[in-house]
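Case study 2.
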Amino acid sequence: MYSFLLGLYLGDGFLTTSGNAVYLCVAMDTAYPGLIAECRHAIADVLPKRRSHLRKQPDRNCIIVRSYGREWGCLFPQHGPGRKHRRRIELATWQRAVVDEHTGPFLRGLIFSDGWRGTNKVCVAGREYAYPRYQFSNRSDDIRRLFTDACDRLSIAWRPWGRWNVSVARRDSVAKLDTFVGPKY
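Prediction:
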């Protein structure tokens, strides 16, 4: 479950401190209660003695899943000042080993935080076509590279789509992602 939680953290997560306390926070859309529950389950799996709490953001469809634990700083060494896309994001050697062993859950966390699966509609020579595809979007070059490296590890064909986006549209690659990503719920 750490690999999945790492993917969520790299997309919509952050660490914050208050005195000696370290909090893992993951911003989640209230439209996906199953995903919120899955995030809480991942937190409980990674640090069984730590509980998670929900903090509703006023006037927004957002919930922050929070968990206290000094260990979070060690588990997410990517933490640092400023926005993730303005600083270097690299996996520690031990994190890389975890992601290599659990690549599917890592991609699932990244897609559930900063991606989507939808239908792409195009018109070619007057004929309309529609096909499923995944898209991942993140302003951090490093996080997009982590996504594409994970896709490469699983032989999932991808291509850049615009400045900050990655598209997975080949039928066999979409089908492969479908086996472990599934719909947001």
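The helical segments are 2-12, 33-46, 72-75, 93-101, 103-114, 141-153, 171-180.
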